[in-house]
Each structure stands twice: as structure tokens, then as C-alpha cells.
Amino acid sequence: MTKEVIDLQIWQLIAAYIFVIIVLLIIRVRRIGREKQLIISTLRMTIQLVLVGYLLIYIFNNAHPAWTIIYILAMELFAIRNVYNRQSVPLSPAIKRSIALSIIIGTLVAIIYFLFVVIVVRPWFDPQYVIPIAGMLIGNSMTGIALGVSTLVEGMYSHKETIRQALMLGATARAAAKPIMDSAFDSAIMPTINSMLGMGIVFLPGMMTGQILSGVSPLVAIEYQIAILLGILGAVSLTVILFIQLGYKTFFNKDTQFIIYEGENVHHS
């Protein structure tokens, strides 16, 4: 027997905001100093979700391949921009291109495989399935590659002398950079692995929770969640691997000289 879905009223949403206000008051009393960040993130989240909600209503009611493709491309561009903005060190044009190519190729391969092989969505552009699935794959890949980029770039900067010494001793560019490449992959993929290890026991993931709340059988929700998690793991891994393979090469020229990019200046050694 399927239970009726609880439709949240305005006063219930207001109650949720009141809970956040209580937390903000506690933060202020404790002088933690993070009120501004919490307020901005709450307001931004609310505005973004409301706008997206109305946009999705239109797209769902006017399903067309063009709308689905445009929405996915918009997510890809936002993900790329977000990765750029989250870095604390200068990014060369070459490594920016590596980031963009890795995100686009890695996530699109995962999305296409998932839609045509795993779930077999018909029609293939059905926004009710394509947009949420693409969002989860792109969003998690964005987080993973942001961590990978940070570790790789900062590692190259902080270990530049070690890399130069390895090159002087005859090591190839790949061999000199391999410890940093491995560290970048680990930092990018570990959050996904740790999240998977705790699912089902420590917490129920978002997609599964949403389906259960909407009245779907827990067993059906579990099947979808397992498939999605495997898709996320594959998308993140593929995206990060592509970036690492392309990214490390941007720190070396054709003569295997190490390159440090500092704003508009490029230093060879």
C-alpha cells in the first residue's frame, strides 16, 4: 500500500528556516564568526533551487532534446567554472583546458553509458531521468576533480625542487611527477569511497531518501541508488584519471623542462 506523499506547507518551510536562525544565534553567542557564510549560503541555495524548480517544471512539461542538451551543457560549464574558482594557486591556460576537457569527456561518457546501457531511458532525452542523473554525475565529478586539481597543482609547486632533481638524474616527466599524480587521485576519489562505505548503515543517500519519501518501494529505491553510486564512482574516477593524465604534462615542455606558471609569467627549469 502506497502512502500519500506529505506536501510541505509554507509554514513548515518557515519552521525549517527558524531552525537555521536558532543555529545562527548559537554561532553568534559562541563567537564562531561564520554567520555571514551561513546566511549567504542559505539565501543562495533558496534562490537557486526556486529558480531551478520553475525552470524544470517548464522543461518537464515541454520535453525536447534541445532543452535537455542545453541544461546539461549549462551544468558542465558551471562545474568547470566552479573548479577554476576553488583553486588557491594560479592555473595556467593549459591546465584550465585539461580541466575542461576532463570534465566534459568524463561526465558525458558516464551519462551516455548510464542512460543507454544501465537505465535505458526512453526517449533518451526524457528530462525527468536525464537531468537528475546528469546532475549527480557532474556534481560529484566536479567535487572530485576540484580536489584532484588542488592536490596536483599544489604538489607540483611545493615539490618543484624534488621534481627538478629527479629530471636531472634522468627520470622521465611521468616518473618525476608520479607520486604527486597518485596523491591527486587518492584525494579526489577518497570522499566518494568513504561516502559509499557509510551508506545504508550510517545514513541513507539523498536519491534513495527522496524516492522513499515519494512512496517508492525501498527495494526499488535501493536498486536505483546502487546503480547511481556505481555511476558516480565511475564518473569521478574517469574524470580524475583524464585530468591527471592531461594535467601533469602541462608542467613540462617538449624538452622535459619543468614549468612553473605564475600569473602571466612562465618559468622553465
Which features would summarize this protein structure in a list?
269 residues, 9 helices, mainly alpha, two-stranded antiparallel sheet, 74% helix
Kindly summarize this structure in a few lines:
With 269 residues, this protein is mostly helical.
Topology of helices and strands:
Blueprint: H1 10-29, H2 35-61, H3 65-85, H4 93-118, H5 127-158, H6 160-168, H7 173-198, H8 206-213, H9 218-247, E1 259-262, E2 265-268
Antiparallel strand pairs: 1-2
Helix pairs in contact: 3-4, 3-5, 4-5, 4-9, 5-7, 5-9, 6-7, 7-9, 8-9
What does this structure look like?
With 269 residues, this protein is mainly α. Helices cover 74% and strands 3% of the residues. It is built from nine helices and two strands; from the N terminus they run H-H-H-H-H-H-H-H-H-E-E. It has helices at 10-29, 35-61, 65-85, 93-118, 127-158, 160-168, 173-198, 206-213, 218-247; strands at 259-262, 265-268. It has a two-stranded antiparallel ribbon. A hairpin with a 2-residue loop joins strand 1 and strand 2. Helix 5 (127-158) packs across helix 7 (173-198) and helix 8 runs antiparallel to helix 9. The protein is globular, with a radius of gyration of 22 Å. The mean pLDDT is 87.
